[in-house]
Amino acid sequence: xxxxxxxxxxxKKAGKSGLNGSGKKMNEDPAILYDQxxxxxxxxxxxxxxxxxxxxxxxxxxxxxxxxRGLNLIGEIYVELGEIDAAREHxxxxxxxxxxxxxxxxxxxxxxxxxWLAQLSEAGGNDSVNWFEKGVATLRRNIQxxxxxxxxxxxxAAQEEKKKLxxxxxxxxxxxxxxxSWEEDAEARCEALVTEALLVAPDSPECLQTLASxxxxxxxxxxxxAALSRSLELWKDLPPDSPLVPDFPTRVSLARLxxxxxxxxxxxxxxxxxxxxxxHSVETWYLGGWCLYLLGxxxxxxxxxxxxxxxxxxxSTLRSSRSWxxxxxxxxxxxxxxxxxxxxHAEELVQDLQNELGDMDDDSDDAEVAxxxxxxxSNDEDDGDEDQKMADS
Length: 393
Hints:
Residues 1-28, 352-393 are annotated as: Disordered. By secondary structure, the chain is mainly α.
């Protein structure tokens, strides 16, 4: 993008013009603009963050740390905006300035650009692995330096770097389970990588999920269930804003893994919590509907606090399934979602449910979500008794 035009005002008038000693406007300090843009990005305002980050980049002096920091920040903003080509371009330019990740993170260096390019690679496969390996090498070096310093702050920073390292190793595992699954040593590599990841970050829900995915591919379902249970135990009772709760995409993947491991009740608990956090996620409503469908059709029904018979609970579960699936289809059309296979499967499931439950013109029952249909009926009765007591008094 074009650079901003330099000021023509004389430095002698800096006191009146608002210029600092370097001839830049005080409010055009790249570091300040980057901080403002970062705050906007982290609070979900990527569109507003972009012009601020670009202004900071345009104001940065060539060769200064602010140039590298700006390239990485703008790249992350473009990722959030879905402009993948632009994001890839900026991360590639950042690599040209710091090809071995030796520039300190405080100056915009580090492993992030390599890890982003691994995820954004058009070629995938070995190209992604190569970018991941550059990021992993950078993180290992940083961890060693931080641990050698003996400072308390550096020890905390090393723990954060270890989490990044573990997640990067899991990223390589995913590639060997998909794009490179045909490699003769794919399984051995996955085993070694996930083992190292868990040694580095033994209490990482994401690493335990990756372990479960590997175990499922090996048909070791009991081991997969154990890993998934451990992953859930680490955060399921924490408040939604806890930093220990995995991010939304990670929990979507978790729900899929739980369903694959035939842990539908646990998957539903995860999904019910997620729709309370974001009720506009097509995939979450779809997975919840599919999960309820499997429960309603299978032997393991969801728990209920009421006194419903098995037949009544099964019908209630299937009605809830239809509700969730219809909601996913409504959102699909509303936001122009692009996963055609998801839509086709949701429609197939809805049609099957319509055939079983009856094709109703009045969808009032489908407006309810599963947790509402499984409310403790005794609580309702207690509330009614309490209301009557208040009226009598």
